[in-house]
Amino acid sequence: MSRPETTSLDPLTRFSDRVDDYVRYRPSYPAEVIAFLRAQGGLGPACVVADIGAGTGIFTGLLLDTGARVIGVEPNDAMRAAAEGEFRGRLNFTSAKGSAEATGLADQSVSLVTCAQAFHWFEPVATAREFRRILRPNGHCAVLWNTAVVGNSAFGLGYEALKLEFGTDFQRIRHEKIDKTERFDAFFGAGNWVRRDFANNQTLTFESLRGRLLSSSYAPKAGHPRFEAMIAALQTLYDRCQTGGLIQAEYQTEVYLGHFA
Asked: Would you place residue 1 in the very low, low, confident or very high pLDDT band (cuts 50, 70, 90)?
């Protein structure tokens, strides 16, 4: 196996040339997540949400549909522009250039902070300080990830192996490496957070499977010496695992809901 070369770990730059694939092919989140946040996190029409690391707005759109006022905070210009285009005309949407560590939002201005598929990029100490500052008393913070289910299918096992073989820095950036209990005990305080898991899945043609892979910042791009070999391996995996021209990608959506002591 060839040694994978490394790429920039800066989230401000590493997704800029993958926005189209990100918008079209990244999985969404199950309705049960929104129901949970309504019941336990105060989400609803009276809520002001800061969606931090909002990216192209995949989770932002689900929040907006509840009637909440949502501020999409995103440092990457290309991703933020995609969200602004998607939600143009939505009166309950505001876009802001900022980071988890420096949102630019006013003190005690939001009642819920959300971080979808982004928290592993944040510096935790500075982020906790910033979230405490912008949250109103008794406000909540929800961190969530779509985590691939690897062991339930030949596709899951094969796709994981493909990412390990061809990913430029897949092992370094994967959020699964985080010790979640230790991280959230330190972030919120022990006893101040709960975890809920929800089943999620994505139905993919070969075109959308290819786009899903290329939306990942660790996937070699066209022109890279290993790009063609990666796509050939993906085609072989798809041909072996497809049923009726479709692949079922399984995820577990992990939600961590907490408040600051």
From this structure: very low
Whole-prediction pTM: 0.89
The rounded distance, in Å, linking the Cα atoms of 15 and 98 is: 16
Residue whose structure tokens are 């549909």: 65
Find the farthest-apart pair of alpha carbons in the chain and give their distance in angstroms, rounded: 54
pLDDT digits (tens, 9 = 90+) for 16-71: 566 888 899 999 999 999 999 999 999 999 999 999 999 999 999 999 999 999 99
Cα 212 to Cα 209: distance, rounded to the nearest angstrom: 5
The H or E element containing residue 70 is strand 69-73
Query: CA nearest 237: which of 153, 158, 157?
Result: 158
Is 146 within 8 Å of 117 (Cβ atoms)? yes
Name the 3-class secondary structure at 172. Answer: helix
The CA R_g of the chain, rounded to the nearest whole Å, is: 18
List of residues 6+ apart from 242 with CB closer than 8 A: 206
Give the phi and the psi of residue 238 in degrees, each rounded to 5: -60, -45
Would you say domain 16-147+175-201+252-258 falls under CATH 3.40.50.150? Answer: yes
Nearest alpha-carbon partner for 7 in 222, 233, 219: 219
Burial of residue 112 (number of CB atoms within 10 Å: 0-12, 13-18, 19+)? buried
Asked if 166 and 4 touch (Cβ cutoff 8 Å), the reply is yes
Rounded Cα distance, 213 and 219, in Å: 7
Give the per-residue pLDDT at 5: 41
| Residue-wise pLDDT tens digits, 162-213 | 999 998 876 665 555 568 999 999 999 999 999 999 999 999 999 999 999 9
CA distance 203 to 243: 11
